[in-house]
Amino acid sequence: MTDFFTKITKRLNELGVSIDERELAHMAKQCGAGHDALQLTEDLLTLIATRKMERKVATLRKFSRIPVSKRLEEFDFTFQPSIDKEYVARLATLGFVHEGENILLTGDPGCGKTHLAIALAEECLDHGMRVYFITMGDLAMKLLQAKADDRLAKVLSSLIRPDLLVIDELGYDRMSVDAAELVFKLISARYERKSIIITTNYQISQWPEVFGSAALTQVIADKFIHHAHVINITGKSYRLRNVK
């Protein structure tokens, strides 16, 4: 019976009902609840908690703006042997998110950077974490427009809130110094607090070509890389694997 009280108490606490095992045991004793009644109660609370989490994850997934679902189990690690599968599996335990660490995924187009980024984001969603996905080009435009509309503080706040921010395709678009400064503000605001994943075809030494300023690149890279896991994928394009 004690095991039932432990499980039921845990489920009630998950649902926001504060109660301890002694209170529950006392109530069960008063109403003469036996094994079957306690089993039904546990099963019902488990179902309620599961449905509640499903609704939460569905809402978080919609908010995340992830363009397409990608899972780690779908990734072909045999095609990209430069990637340490066990290392990625450790990242998927989400310790990096809890510690406010970042991930940098570099490599040629089609090598799987975005797949891995989205797969890790999906793991966060599965655990009820808030995620937001955006390309670097769209991020720059979003921040510049917010500044022009005198809404920068509000937009920055919304981009700081997610537990994981995925910034895809750094390098596809060159940006102005003004945009680069705003990106720096965002990275600084999330520094050591919330995690970022960046995917890029560019090595860090090439980032001045993207941000338009060597000095800005230095401060952006310093903030981002300080607590970052760097995965450099050297394999061929996964999308072109069947092209003769």
How does this model look, in words?
The protein has helices spanning 2-14, 21-31, 35-64, 85-91, 95-98, 113-126, 136-148, 152-160, 177-190, 207-211, 214-225, and strands at residues 102-107, 131-135, 164-170, 195-200, 228-233. It is α/β, with parallel strands linked by helices and 244 residues long. Strands 2-3-4-1-5 form a five-stranded parallel sheet. α9 (177-190) links the parallel β3 and β4 (195-200). The model has no long low-confidence stretch (mean pLDDT 92).
Secondary structure topology:
Layout: H1 2-14, H2 21-31, H3 35-64, H4 85-91, H5 95-98, E1 102-107, H6 113-126, E2 131-135, H7 136-148, H8 152-160, E3 164-170, H9 177-190, E4 195-200, H10 207-211, H11 214-225, E5 228-233
Parallel strand pairs: 1-4, 1-5, 2-3, 3-4
Helix pairs in contact: 1-2, 1-3, 7-8, 7-9, 9-11
Spell out the key features of this protein.
single chain, 244 residues, alpha/beta, Rossmann fold, 2 domains, 11 helices
- Write down the overall geometry: elongated
Domain unit count: 2
Q: Which CATH C-level class of the largest domain is it?
A: Alpha Beta
**What integer value in Å does the Rg equal?**
23 Å
**What's the story with the biggest beta sheet?**
5 strands, parallel
CATH superfamily of the largest domain: P-loop containing nucleotide triphosphate hydrolases
Spatial order of the strands forming the largest sheet: 2-3-4-1-5
Termini Cα gap: 65 Å
- Average predicted local confidence, pLDDT: 92
- Supply the helix-strand structural class: alpha/beta
CATH architecture of the largest domain: 3-Layer(aba) Sandwich
The helix/strand order is: HHHHHEHEHHEHEHHE
CATH topology name of the largest domain, in short, is Rossmann fold
Low-confidence region ranges: none
Helix content: 40-55%
Into which percentage range does the β-strand content fall?
A: 5-15%
Tally of strands: 5
* Count of DSSP H/I helices: 11
